Every structure is written in structure tokens, then in C-alpha cells.
Amino acid sequence: MSVLVITGTSTDVGKTVVTAALAAAAAAAGRTVAVCKPAQTGVAPGEAGDLEEIERLTGVTDLVELVRYPDPLAPDTAARRAGMPLLERKPMVDAVNELAASHDLVLVEGAGGLLVRLGVDGFTLSDVARDLGAPVVVVASASLGTLNHSELTVRALKADGVTCAGVVIGSWPDEPDLAETCNLDDLPVVTGVPVTGRVPAGSGGLGRDDFTRAAAGWFDPEWLADTTSGSRALA
What we know:
Layout lengths: L1 E7 L6 H14 L4 E9 L8 H9 L4 E7 L5 H8 L6 H12 L4 E9 L11 H8 L3 E5 L5 H14 L4 E9 L5 H14 L3 E6 L7 H7 L6 H9 L6
Parallel strand pairs: 1-4, 1-5, 2-3, 2-4, 5-6, 6-7
Helix pairs in contact: 1-2, 6-7
């Protein structure tokens, strides 16, 4: 069994589509996959959230959402505004470990960036990854500013003793501009970890068949096999 945590350098960088692509690629390789979205914000009860989007794109149905808050805010702030219980760290970790006991791969998609406060006592996704002993995939923008955001995120992981499995660009344009082209070369230099995938812009708009057929091709094949199988330690 293997647990992989997915975070972003910020919000709206493509975490859900990258999570879906990893799930689709692993399922296509014959692995049993579950996806956990511990905290969903900005979605009312009964509305489709990130997990429903992952199911639409991949057909994966083992999906767990622990808390949901209506305001599009950091989970702890959204909980307080709604007068709802905050997410607790140990029950969250226990829920992921329970999924891991019965699946080859569990993907844990965070909310916003790495250090967004998730719940009681201000714990973060980095804390959760450390508790789980799980590596973290950083989803980054392709555009100007991503070098700073990505390096800060990877530095924060290293400071917490958490392994960064690699950087994936969440939306790679059909016609990259100068900054985007340079960023592809510079990201590994400033972060110290490889760019291990590029998801084409607009991939979230594909139908399930097209998405699942293409997903594995968006990642480095050796990295994908190792990361989704947990067959070796990631550095």
C-alpha cells in the first residue's frame, strides 16, 4: 500500500485534475485506488465538489470527504464562520490509514496551499504528511511567479522533514510563452526536485475515456510507476 499527498503552490493551480490524473494512471495499471479530500470548502451540501469531479474524470469510486464548509475560505476559517466543528488531525490521519489498509494507493488532496490551516490547533497538510510518513507532490503553475512559490513550498516541506516527490505543472499551455518555457528548466534548479509531469491545459474538460487514456502520458513513466506503487523511497 502507498499514500501520496497532493498539495499546490496556491489555490487554482490544478490540484484536483492532477489528483485525478494520478488516480486514472494508477487504476489503468491495475492498482486499487482511493482518494481522500479531507476538507472541501466553497461547496454547499448536495453540490458536486472535487471528489465528484475526480469520479467524473476517472471512474474511481472509493472517495472520502471528511468535512465540508460552504464558504470558499481556508478550512479552519470556514468552519468558524459556519459554526461547524473543525477538522481534527488524528481522526483525519486514521481515516487515511484505514483506506490505505485496503487499497494499493491512497491519494490525499489538500485544500489550497501547503500551509493552509486545516483544523484544530492550526495543523497543516505538511503535518498530516509527516504523520502519515507520505511523500508530497507539489502542483505548480507554469506562469511567472511559480519559481518563488514552488521553492517556498518545497523548502517548507524539507523544513518539516517531509519528502517532496516532485513538481507537477497543473496546466501546461499549448503555446508556452518565454516565462513558461524558462520555468520548465528553472524549476528543478530552484527547488532541487524534478518536474515529473505536465498536465495539458484544459484536460479537466475532457470526457472520462479521453482523460483516462491520456493521463499516464502526462507524467515521467518511471516516476509514475515508482510513485504510485510505493516501490522505493522518493527523494
